[in-house]
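Morning run. Coffee first, then this:
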Amino acid sequence: MNLQKVAIIGCGMVGSSTAFALAESGLFTNMLLIDVNRDRAVGEAMDLSHCLPFIRPVEIRAGNYSDISDCGIIIITAGVGQKPGETRLDCIKKNTEVFRSIIPQITEYNRDAFLLVVSNPVDVLSYVAYKLSGYPHNRVFGSGTVLDSARLKFLVGRRLNVNPKSVHAFVIGEHGDSELAVWSSANVGGIELDTYCSHCGYERHDENRKAIENDVKNSAYEIINRKGATYYGIACATTHICASIVRDEHSIMPVSTLVNGHYGLNDIYISVPALIGSGGVEDVIDINLSKTEMNALTDSASTLRSALREIGF
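And here it is:
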């Protein structure tokens, strides 16, 4: 397995944006693009290769599944995108069929890579990829609520006029309508969030939290309504996850991973904080949740279980 070689399956807006972000990151020396539309993959590889005079050396080419045998990370972005007025779960049946086609072709040529699922609904499809591939669970995970957490940090940072990097907070649960922000442990530079908000003159904490959480949940819908799709944010989130694997950073981020015995949940892929390193998901981190947050996470898991039952998993 070559951790310097990455494959991206699906060259739509998310796949191509992810390829561009990864090319600029310098994480990989080889990048393979695969798409059901071969011409699209070839065109993207050509376009990205013209960046090479400005970035670190990386071989970028279109290929077939037979070319992935030595890939260290395989990123799946293929599937039907979310349309205006749809939820992520509305994509479930069509994208499950896409995965039934893709996963066997991956496992035919590679049994050792990390499978990073980005396609939506990401929690459901991560579980589908895990079951269909037979890979160990630590090597199959999804982008989860990494982007949602970034949106939360951005919105809190903008409200408080502070760098979002100084905001520490997680969004967990389904990457979708039942997700929840973990306010009970949120802080700004180590200062409890409500205390910092009061320092900035914001006192209606519950009201402000609800408004920000709704903005986080609705961000994707608004972007899709305005421009048709979201892709830059998830491209950066995916690059961040890949960096933690390739560089063995041991970063903690809320990826969609198999949960057994944590938070009272079992045999479900859901987004919770996890330690990401060269072993993939090396640990699931149990953070303290309030009773309300714990109930919301349980409800989110129920939503995902219902979705899995619809597709026979």
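The chain has two domains: 2-142, 146-310. Good start to the day.
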